[in-house]
Amino acid sequence: MARAGWPAVRRMGGAVALVLMVPAATGADPEDAGGLTVDLRIERGLHEALDAEGLTARARLRDGRLAVTVGAERLHLPEPVGTLAGVRLDCPSLVPTTAGWRCREARLSADGGDLVLQEHPLRLDWHTGHNRLRVAGDWPGWFGASGEFVLRVAGADDWRAELALSGVDLVALAESPRLAPWLPEEPPVTLQSGRADLAMQGAAEGDHRAELRLRDVGFSDAVGLRAGEGIGGRLEAREVAGDWILDATLEEGAVFVDPWFVDPDETGALNLRADGLRPADGGFAAGVEVAELSGSLGEMLAFSGQEIRSGSPEAIAPSGSFRLEARDPGAVHAVLLDPVLAGTPGRDLVLSGDSVVARLGLERGEPRSATLRWKALSAEDGTGRFGVTDSDGALSWQAGAPGVPGHLGWERAHLFRLPLGEFDARVRAQPDGIDLLEATRIPILDGALRVDDFGLRLTPDGPDVRFTGGVQAISLEPLTEVLGWPRFSGRLAGMIPEVRLDRGDLAVDGRLLVQVFDGDVVLRDVRIRDLFGRTPELGLSARMDRLDLALATRAFDVGRVEGRLSGHLEDLHMIDWRPVRMDLAVHTPADAPGRRRISQRAVQNITELGGPVQAAASSVFLRFFENFSYRRLGFRCVLRDGVCEFGGVADRPDGGFTLVQGGGLPRIEVIGYNRRVDWDELLRGLSRVTAGEPPEVR
Most exposed residue of 461, 485, 579, 657, measured as fewest CB within 10 angstroms of its CB? Predict the structure, then answer.
């Protein structure tokens, strides 16, 4: 509308109104006196990047100075800016230049709800020849930051922006609703402190750059599984020809992300570099050509990814190939794997070796292929349960078909102090496990474990192991020595039927035949619970048939006994390889042929085992004879709660029991009276007997 006293020309065209005001001779408004004013109003303006309501513009020429005011009732811009109300840009003096127009004292006001500008100063330059607008100014102090920005715009496809900020309050920034569309509804951590310096530049044609320097950042989650404090570092991103290069460095502070703890003061600065990041199909997804670690972690671990692609942020499903090389396997295990393996058989493991190289192929987040190669790798369990030295191997796995044949082996190894010799086997990885391709043997002392068939399958209920083989003539004397048992000679051999492993518990189906002391020992119900745990538990039952006592007593060096021995061992339960429960009974078979003789030394050792056990003959009588005849011998021990309840081949009216029943001449009987004997004391007595000569008989 024209002011009073001014002639007006009005042109209405839909939602557009143009008012032209010219000076009047008398009665003019002092503000417009001697000048020219043009008002423009547009009810709504639409553009691909904005939606404006109630647009107004005023140009006022007075005394040779042009003043311009542009405003909008509402301005809808893309996120994170959103909707602005009361937008007003005032330029009190638009000055012509050789290239176009300049305004050094512009003021911008706008209300974004949480962010408000009130006549914020700007500097404007309009290059009319290139139709390019340059906007520059100081940062308005949002999020506690200070700095400046520059924006050059010549069109939707021709723009360049620069921003440099210092002291950004990261907590305030994280709490801003401007970031809500890019953050999860329930963030994994809560930011508690932190400042940052930010430098950014970008252009329509590309060449985007951003550098973020962090200091004193702290965060945590509700349950304490993720936390950090005093964090300082740098994040740099550069775009070159559509591809991005990401360079991130953690320089100081402490970070805990269960189960890992990282302190750069101890490990040195950690750096991650990713080359070839680029937009992928479906929005936020990205591809990576090369990603690698450097710094102290990079010295021991080389990581790279090739053509890694992922889906939308709602369902991240990367595809591509990854390569991981442990240049220092021991350090990698200590820093990355040891915390993960806590509570598993791999805990307390010490690794060393040349290298381990792994490759993994993914398709929409699902593993499709993998290879693993290692060289001169040694591993030792800190509790002494197992270990390998100089292991080499190569495995190839495919999701939909058997992999190519591979191999694994070692120079030497041990399992619960049992030494294993040099070993090499041809194997093939299957989609759900691994198979042995040909029979092989694992040397054990002077014998071996023969492996005829081996297969492992991973099932929803845990690993399923198939194993058949046998034990080839292992000398018992060195075997008992390394196991810490009383030393005795002989040889161990037998067949091993099918073995099953279920969630760390091992069970042997069928029966295991062990041929020892010229007799047979048949083991059944063999089971080991928590095989690689801290306190493994062994359970079994056994039947002994016609063991040669001459060989057995010579093995234990307790004095010579001739004859045969049969019996049973029921419900043996060992914890950490120590018996805690059993029912053991052995005796002379009634129909066993051959001599039945017991030496003076054997009688003495039986009586020296402890408790009221006596030889029913005078010491003088014992001095005259080296050997005695017996009719039968045997004993029974029922072990419960550390106490062995004893019995013999016959009970006596006086409450005792007969251990050796005499027969023939010269004749002797050994009688016991203490039916309850402490198990540990019995073992100590047996150790004394087998360690040296018994005391002289008086």
Answer: 461
Average confidence score pLDDT of the chain: 81
CB 650 within 8 A of CB 657: yes
- The predicted model scores a pTM of 0.60
Would you list the domain boundaries of the chain? 12-23+33-138, 535-691
In whole angstroms, what separates CA 670 from the centre of its chain? Answer: 62
Residue 344: what are its φ and ψ, rounded to 5°? -120, 170
Contacts for 542-547: CB closer than 8 Å, 24+ residues apart? 542/568, 542/569, 542/572, 543/567, 543/568, 543/569, 544/519, 544/520, 544/568, 544/569, 544/586, 545/519, 545/520, 545/521, 546/518, 546/519, 546/520, 546/589, 546/592, 547/516, 547/517, 547/518, 547/519, 547/521
Pair 387, 377: CB distance under 8 Å? no
Looking at this protein, which amino acid is placed at residue 16? V
Tell the residue number behind the tokens 């398709």, with chain if given.
363
* pLDDT at position 407 over 60: yes
CA atoms within 13 A on the CB side of 531: 13
Other Cβ atoms closer than 10 A to 242:
10
Q: Which residue has the tokens 């189906």?
A: 509
- Return the biggest CA–CA distance within the chain: 160
Q: State the pLDDT at residue 614.
A: 47
CB count in 10 Å sphere of residue 121: 12
Per the model's pLDDT, the better-predicted residue between 612 and 65 turns out to be 65
Is residue 63 classed exposed, middle or buried when 0-12, 13-18 and 19+ CB atoms within 10 A define those classes? exposed
Residue type, 127: H
CA 222 to mean position of chain CA atoms: 22
Neighbouring CB atoms inside 10 A of 265's CB total: 11
CA dist 111 and 575 (Å) reads 75
The DSSP line for 385-428 is SEEEEEEEEEEEEESSSPPPPEEEEESEEEETTEEE--EEEEEE
Q: Are 520 and 540 in contact (CB under 8 A)?
A: no
Look up residue 531 and give its two tokens. Answer: 């095989």
Tell which residue, 52, 34, 36, has the closest CA to residue 44: 52
At 54 the three-state DSSP class reads strand
Task: Looking at 348-496, list the stretches that DSSP marks H as alpha helix, in order from N- to C-terminal side.
Answer: 476-482
Per-residue pLDDT at 606: 79
User: Residue 608 and residue 698: Cα distance in Å, rounded?
Assistant: 13
Q: What is the pLDDT of residues 353-375, one digit of tens each?
A: 888 999 988 887 788 999 999 99
Write down the pLDDT at residue 320. Answer: 73
Pairing of strands 499-502, 505-508: antiparallel
**Residue 34 in 3-state DSSP?**
coil
Token couple for 495: 């067949």
Across 598-614, average pLDDT: 71
Higher pLDDT, 162 or 463: 162
pLDDT tens-digit map of 98-153: 889 999 999 999 998 888 999 999 999 988 888 888 999 999 999 999 999 999 98
Ramachandran region of residue 216, left (φ > 0), alpha (ψ -120 to 50) or beta? left
Is 13's pLDDT higher than 50?
no
The model's pLDDT over 167-220, given as tens digits with 9 standing for 90+, comes to: 999 999 988 888 777 677 778 889 999 999 999 998 887 778 999 999 999 999
